[in-house]
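Final report, closing paragraph on structural work. Over the funding period we assembled a curated collection of sequence-structure pairs, and we close with a single example.
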Amino acid sequence: MSSTRPRILIAEDESGIADTLQYVLQSDGFTPVWCATAEAAIASFEAEPPALAILDVGLPDMNGFELFKRLQARMRDTGGAEVPMVFLTARSDEIDRVVGLELGADDYIAKPFSPRELVARVRTILRRSQRAGVAAPAPATAPAPAAQAAPLPFVVDTERMLIRYYGRPLELSRYEYGLLRLFVQRPGRVFTRDELLSMVWDDASDSFDRTVDAHIKTLRAKLKAVAPEVDPIRTLRGTGYALNEDLPARP
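Its predicted structure, as stored:
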């Protein structure tokens, strides 16, 4: 097997799911490495850091979130390159998705998953990671700045709940801010309407797909007012929305 095939670490205790992951990844040019426990995943990670790690939330010996923190700490201690990480979570465990993203994971994949979608997400994350280049993570004791510059023409100020676009502050509603902040955090990542409802709205059960579409429409209008020639939000018909990864440096 060629050494140029990206190595993908899989931490998953269910053999059936692990077999599917290994098959689709290997068929698409990756080298999957399966670990049935968190301890085995840590040992594999330390022996040879992968290009990307897929972590099941419900591992038998350690919570997947704790494994994520352990691997993050390992990268900080060794000063190695950052490894993108994706959580596997049950479709009903909505809180798992939110917690995983808040921890800093690059994405999550809900079970049962589409093999084609899984491979597409892995490729997107790796491509985005390569474009960003290798950057040393900040020390754990360093305070996070209130304003965070994204690798796009956006600056997110979480303390003020303010987002600047091409240097101009946007006057956003609460939900417009939530949507745009989520998009900016994961450019290129396709969010379904249901996902946006669950992650941005207080009570998704009281909202509908049309609510998301309406807020996307008003958000687009405000972005267009700043840069008329730029369309930063992509619509994937029948699927959802994503932030364009190839925005110009200047409008």
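The domain at 7-132 is CATH 3.40.50.2300 (Rossmann fold). Helices lie at 15-27, 38-47, 64-78, 94-103, 115-132, 174-185, 193-200, 209-226. We thank the funder for supporting this effort.
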